[in-house]
Amino acid sequence: MTRDLPASAPARVLAVLEHVAGGGSTANLSELARTTGLNRITLMRLLADLTEEGVLERTGAGHRVGQRLLLLSAAALSGQELTSLGQRTLDGLSAALGVSAYLVVAEDDRITYLLRAIPDTPLVSQVTVGTVVPIDATTGGRAVLAARAGDRAPVFWSRSGYEPGIDSVAAAVVRPDGAPVAAVSLAAPSGRLDHSPARRAEVEDALITAVADLGALLGAARG
């Protein structure tokens, strides 16, 4: 798929790095140009500069992520843990969707609400940080239970379930090794989360992407 031309120098660099980090080849400049939206001359210059700086490394006819970029990524992730990475995830979801977002962790047969982010609107849920409930009482707990059993169902919905008048949807946070470590749940007054097919798709896509990214980051930070 051909991308739009990245407008800025940082965007052009990121386009190349995302392609290489995703396993894409740089051997065929014409194909790389179609994929990144950059012209061949720009690509040749960027590949040469990034290789010289150690951000990329040559591998035969192509490139791979270089040691310098790996070290920078490791330094950024070192010390990062569920709370700091999770809060960033919740803040992004709450701001983008205008709903309350929660991170829950499970222990045996119960879950604890560890973090939350709420929009700049009246509070839509009375659940507070530190609330402990049976694991099967909320969408977050059910998502963790399913992940423990190997069920990769992407999301779990509930309408006026745990709290009257509040709808919720949740998905498990799973590390690359397959271990579920938490769940992210979203809550809003009934009808706000899925008042239309387009809205439902928007919410599900944002949630699935967020938990996948968080799981990958936690796996990287864990080393």
UniProtKB/TrEMBL annotation:
SUPFAM superfamilies: GAF domain-like (SSF55781), Winged helix' DNA-binding domain (SSF46785). The keyword Membrane does not apply. It holds the Pfam family IclR_C. Gene3D superfamilies: 3.30.450.40, Winged helix-like DNA-binding domain superfamily/Winged helix DNA-binding domain. Residues 68-223 form the IclR-ED domain. Residues 7-67 form the HTH iclR-type domain. It comes from the Bacteria. This is IclR family transcriptional regulator.
